[in-house]
Design goal:
- By secondary structure, the protein is mainly α.
- Helix content is 77%, strand content 1%.
- It has 14 helices and two strands.
- The protein has a two-stranded antiparallel ribbon with strand order 1-2.
C-alpha cells in the first residue's frame, strides 16, 4: 500500500465509521455497531496480552466485569457522570491486572490459561456474594440511565452513545498502535518469540509481562464500562465464562498480533451468532461452530492474514 495512503486510510475509515451509521442506520443497528466498538476494545486488550506478548488468557471477561461494575456503582451510588467513570475503571482494572500478572511470572502456557480461566469462573460468584451485595446488587444487578447528548447536540441517545464509544475506542486503538510499533511492542514480541534471547538482550521480562497484563486489563475494563453504559444494566450472570471465551474467539478469528484484527474479530462475535440463528433456529450453536471451523481451515491466521495477503499482492 502506498505510504501516504496507509497514513490517510485510518482517518478516512474513522470518519466514515462516525458519519455513515448516523445517516443510514436505525437505532437498533446503531446499538449493534456500538457493541462492535465495545467488543473491539476488549479483543484489542486480549490481543496485546496474548497475540503480542504470548501470555494466554481465558479470563479477560473478569476484567470486563470489573470495569462494568465500577462504572455502574459509581453512576448508581455516587452520581458520577458516565464519562468520568472511565478513568476509575481504567485504574481499578490496571491494578487488578497487575496483581494477577505477578503469578504469571511463574506460569506459562496452559498453566497460565487455567489460572485465568479460574478467574473467569470465580468472578460471577464473587459478584453475587452477600458481602458485596450492597454494592453490586447481587443477582438483581444494577440498572443505569442512558446518557443524553451534551451541549444541545441534535443527536438522540443512541447516536450520541455510538459516537462517544467510537471516540474512546479510536483513542485506545491509536494508543495501542503506537505502542506495538515502538520499542515496547518490539520487546513484547521478543518475549513472546524468544524469551531467553530477549533476557540476554537486557529486556526486563518480569516488568514487561506484568505491565502488559495491566495494560490488557485496562483496555478490557474500559470496554466493560462502555458496555455497561450501552446496555444500561449489569448482572453477574452476564459475565460468565462464555464471555471470556467469546473474546478469545474474536482474537483468534480476527488474527493474533493485529490491531485491525480486533475490529474484524468484534464484527464476527457480534454478527455471526445472529447469522447462525437465522440459518437454523433449531441448532444455531451447530451452525456457529461450523462457521468457526470453516474460518480456521480457510484462514488459520485470522481475517487479518487476508488483509496482509491482499496488501502484499497490491505491493
Amino acid at each position: 500500500m502506498n505510504p501516504t495512503l496507509s497514513r490517510v486510510f485510518p482517518w478516512l475509515f474513522f470518519a466514515a465509521a462516525a458519519v455513515l451509521p448516523l445517516l443510514f442506520a436505525s437505532d437498533y443497528r446503531l446499538f449493534q455497531l456500538t457493541m462492535v466498538v465495545v467488543y473491539a476494545v476488549a479483543v484489542l486488550g486480549l490481543n496485546l496480552l496474548t497475540g503480542y506478548n504470548g501470555q494466554v488468557s481465558l479470563g479477560n471477561g473478569a476484567f470486563y466485569a470489573i470495569g462494568a461494575y465500577t462504572t455502574a456503582i459509581l453512576m448508581d451510588k455516587f452520581g458520577v457522570p458516565y464519562w468520568a467513570t472511565l478513568p476509575f475503571s481504567a485504574l481499578v482494572c490496571a491494578g487488578v491486572g497487575f496483581l494477577i500478572g505477578l503469578p504469571a511470572l511463574r506460569l506459562g502456557g496452559m498453566y497460565l490459561a487455567l489460572t485465568t480461566f479460574a478467574l473467569a469462573v470465580a468472578t460471577p460468584q464473587l459478584l453475587k456474594y452477600k458481602l458485596f451485595e450492597g454494592w453490586t446488587g447481587g443477582v438483581q444487578g444494577i440498572v443505569i440511565d442512558k446518557p443524553d447528548a451534551p451541549f444541545g447536540l441534535p443527536l438522540n441517545p443512541d447516536q450520541w452513545l455510538y459516537l462517544f464509544c467510537l471516540l474512546v475506542g479510536g483513542v485506545l486503538f491509536l494508543a495501542a498502535s503506537n505502542m506495538v510499533r515502538g520499542r515496547i511492542g518490539r520487546a513484547m514480541r521478543a518475549i513472546r518469540d524468544q524469551p531467553t534471547a530477549a533476557e540476554a538482550m537486557g529486556i526486563d521480562i518480569a516488568m514487561f509481562k506484568t505491565r502488559t497484563f495491566a495494560t490488557s486489563a485496562l483496555f478490557t475494563g474500559i470496554s466493560g464500562s462502555l458496555g455497561a453504559i450501552t446496555i444500561q444494566f449489569v448482572a453477574p450472570d452476564a459475565f460468565g465464562v462464555p464471555l471470556s471465551l467469546t473474546f478469545f474467539v474474536g482474537m483468534v478469528v480476527g488474527g493474533g498480533a493485529s490491531i485491525a484484527g480486533a475490529i474484524m474479530g468484534a464484527l464476527f462475535i457480534q454478527f455471526v451468532p445472529n447469522i447462525a440463528e437465522e440459518v437454523s433456529k433449531a441448532a444455531p450453536g451447530a451452525v456457529y461452530g461450523l462457521i468457526l471451523i470453516g474460518f480456521m481451515f480457510l484462514l488459520p491466521g485470522g481475517l487479518a492474514s487476508l488483509l496482509r495477503l491482499l496488501n502484499g499482492k497490491r505491493a
